[in-house]
User: Fold this.
Amino acid sequence: MANFNLPTIASLFADVITLFKDRIDDVARQMRTDVAAPTNMPDKSIRWNVTNSNWEQFDLGMLQWDPLAALYGIDVNLLSGQSGPFYLDWDNFVNVPVGLPPAVHSHDFGFLPSSPEGVLQIFRGTTAEIGAFTGLIGEISVDKTKQTVVVHDGATAGGFPLATEAVVSANTASIALKAPIASPDLTGTPTTPTAAAGNKSSQIANTTFVDGEINGQQTIWAGSGALTPTETNGAAPVTQELSIQKILIAGLDFDASTQQHAQIYWQSPKGVDVSAGLICQAIWTNAPVASSGDVVWAFKARAVTNNDGIDASFGTNVTLVDSFIVAGDLHASEESGVVTPSNTWTPEDLIFIDVFRDAANASDTYAEDARLIGIRIHYTTLKIIDS
Assistant:
């Protein structure tokens, strides 16, 4: 019979081996109740009670032995010779928590109100039942509706379903179809988000972005030297050297009372968007004598293709009004409305553009000559390359 308080520091050295041997003997016999009982047992010690054929656990606080069947919910007397199904029958358990209905005994949705630490609970139910269940950390349930296993964390309703073999196989097959991140070789018609206009980062540029960056409105500058005054009521070509820095200005003077004209012709490119028409601006300044008020500039155009008559009417006049600011300053008008050439405009047509001062217009109140330095002609492209 062992005394589990021995040996102590006061024990004789010669007795130490015997004291340890007594302990080992009692443990080896599982502290059976048909031999002399040891003393000073540590808390939670386990013994085999030969009288009632039960395992028991020592409660040091109460100084008593408690049956393990009462603590862990299974009658050990029934274990002998039982097969697996025995352990899956709820009715073979003792100390079933109060309140569990008989239907739960089929092992459908039902669980202990609280699990002893280290005891894993597994149960099953429908998707709806499991969807409202948070469980305890590490608990496992089987979703009978979806035929999946669910792991619970004690906080998330419905837990975290584990992927079935079929889902894993499908995902694996799907991943195999994806292009690698490094040097992907894409086929078909892959798409990407369209970057904002003017983006100069390393973002992938799709065709929409590229089209917007290289196509759209283009500008032609036609200085006064590129404009030819008409023989009838043509503007007056002039040059003027400014007094301080000797800057030389070549221009066309347009009279304040007589409608005078100048023209240019230009071959439109293959990629021109004829539906957008033309937009024009007047770049001008004052003649030597300045005044105040507004100048009305006007533009009209005609498209001519192979085998068309050249000498035919222009399209509708489009006017714009620009106010005089300060003598000697450059004046750049706002953009005009759409100037639509007469005839049917097709790419590569020759476009004749007539610019004039609409002196008879009541809105033209500038009383002196207006000196045109040049015009800006804006057109729109659908593609930048003529091919």
In short: The domain at 216-381 is CATH 2.60.120.260 (Jelly Rolls). DSSP finds five helices and 18 strands in the chain. The longest helix spans residues 13-28. Confidence is low (pLDDT under 50) at residues 95-115.
